[in-house]
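User: structure tokens for this one?
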Amino acid sequence: MLKLVVCIKQVPMVSELPWDSKSATLRRDLAEGMMNPACANALEAAFQIKRRYGGDIITLTMGPPMAEEVLYEAIAMGADRGVLLTDPHMAGGDTFVTSYTLARAIEKECPDFDLVLCGCFTSDSETAQVGPQLAEELDIPGVAYVEKLEINHRTVRMRRLSDDFVEILEMDMPGLVTVTTQANAPRYPSLSGLETAFDKPDISILGARDLGLEPETIGVQ
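Assistant:
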């Protein structure tokens, strides 16, 4: 059975982007949150893989305590469990520090993963850097901007659009892909999914100490 890790992020609603000029960070605690759109597409891609090939889906997010909301949403949609990384020391980290922290969490929670899926970018920054940097941190191959995935034994076959050319690529697992918003339209949670999410959700909450991370290695550097 495949073990899939989907990295998702809670982002502020587009209409609400409160900025703290003193700390030069977004005040995420003051904004209404939502699941980053590209992350929802990555999650849907994982659901389709699970339906076709079988598997277990772990969703992982890093943020303030309120970011747990997107894990409930993911479980309601069909994910098996969620992991929230939250700690004041993690706040304000750049993409390098974020990918470092996510990698350590994946190694702890799902060391024998087969495939990591991420959104191609986030609506609150659009750097598109965390996915590729996470692949480097995990020392695995990675492919960005994937539209379609197929799995044959231990090989992932992917289609992506790059510079107006369609590319067909293959990658051995374990590996990482970032998924575009051009395909894999996200599903809506079912009633039974909502019952599971709010009745017996399988969600773990981890801080820096749980991951064995020193405060000076994470957060604002």
